[in-house]
């Protein structure tokens, strides 16, 4: 990963985990993704089905598009998916990134019923699609689209999007209301606390980091200084054998 790409990726991951709302998650994701994997259109489709439900009944609850005028294309796509939800079943259990140009030739894509009914009016050439999954809960789908002028997505683009899978899964799970379905945060914290012998204060700080609290919020809520917080963080990093908040985010979503 090139230096500039790594910095953008690093900033995106931090922005996602620090976002205060799902609206902010969408804004940060679309903004950074435009620079990491350039696209002309993008969408987020959220699923409104029980994560334990493996029936063919799959409903789309919300649609977010960039730009908004692309929503008509995705509404047509959603109608097709809800009529034949089996197309998404391969995505339901883990985060998978697929580029259409890796499956079909340009001619086959242009002459497909999907292209003609949904995307022909937007001159779409290729799509890069990834499922958002957290602890086997299928949350939704992110799709990037390119026009003919921009060219096809590459294997490198798909690999880069795939690396965001764990982060997006956890952030989506928490920020769009999926965390109400018994997210086992306390169990995970207890396992970490016992394994590396965290102190009560370190456990409290790690809990707030799990909840994506900012350093300023943590200091305010615990009535401690930034210097004291940094000392606790350094102790946590040492016990977990990591060296930064970036690595900590990776550790927490692993």
* SS class: alpha+beta
Number of helices: 12
Using the alpha-carbon principal axes, give the shape. elongated
**What percent of residues are in strands?**
15-25%
Using only C-alpha atoms, the radius of gyration works out to 20 Å
* Main sheet attributes: strand count, strand direction, barrel closure: 5 strands, antiparallel
The arrangement of helices and strands along the chain is HHEEHEHHEEHHHHHHH
Helix content: 40-55%
What number is the mean pLDDT?
83
Whole-Å distance between the termini?
Answer: 21 Å
Number of strands: 5
Poorly predicted runs of 5 or more residues? 50-56, 180-184
Task: Please give the order of strands in the largest beta sheet.
Answer: 2-1-5-4-3
Throw out a few tags for this protein:
254 residues; alpha+beta; elongated
Quick gist of this model?
With 254 residues, this protein is of the alpha+beta class.
Can you walk through the features of this model?
The chain is of the alpha+beta class. 52% of the residues lie in helices and 15% in strands. It has twelve helices and five strands. It has helices at residues 3-18, 22-36, 71-83, 106-110, 113-119, 155-163, 165-175, 185-196, 200-210, 215-222, 226-240, 245-253, and strands at 41-47, 60-66, 97-99, 124-134, 137-147. It has a five-stranded antiparallel beta sheet with strand order 2-1-5-4-3, with helices on both faces. Strand 4 (124-134) and strand 5 (137-147) form a beta hairpin. Helix 1 (3-18) packs antiparallel against helix 2 (22-36) and helix 3 (71-83) runs antiparallel to helix 5. The longest helix is centred in the N-terminal third of the chain and has 16 residues, at 3-18. Mean pLDDT is 83; it is low at 50-56 and 180-184.
């Amino acid at each position: 990963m090139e230096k500039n790409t790594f910095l953008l990726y690093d900033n995106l991951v931090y922005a996602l985990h620090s976002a205060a709302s799902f609206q902010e998650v969408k804004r940060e994701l679309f903004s950074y993704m435009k620079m990491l994997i350039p696209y002309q259109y993008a969408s987020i489709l959220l699923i409104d089905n029980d994560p334990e439900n493996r029936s063919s009944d799959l409903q789309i609850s919300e649609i977010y598009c960039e730009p908004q005028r692309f929503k008509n294309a995705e509404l047509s796509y959603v109608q097709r998916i809800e009529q034949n939800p089996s197309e998404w079943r391969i995505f339901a259990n883990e985060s998978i990134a697929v580029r259409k140009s890796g499956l079909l030739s340009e001619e086959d894509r242009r002459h497909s019923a999907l292209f003609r009914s949904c995307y022909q009016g937007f001159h779409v050439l290729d799509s890069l699609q990834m499922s958002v999954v957290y602890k086997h809960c299928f949350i939704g789908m992110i799709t990037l689209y390119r026009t003919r002028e921009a060219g096809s997505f590459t294997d490198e683009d798909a690999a880069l999007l795939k690396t965001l899978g764990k982060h997006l899964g956890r952030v989506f799970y928490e920020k769009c209301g999926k965390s109400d379905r018994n997210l086992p945060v306390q169990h995970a914290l207890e396992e970490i606390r016992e394994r590396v012998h965290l102190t009560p204060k370190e456990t409290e700080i790690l809990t707030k980091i799990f909840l994506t609290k900012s350093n300023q919020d943590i200091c305010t809520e615990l009535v401690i200084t930034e210097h004291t917080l940094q000392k606790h963080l350094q102790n946590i990093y040492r016990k977990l054998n990591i060296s930064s908040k970036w690595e900590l985010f990776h550790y927490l979503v692993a």
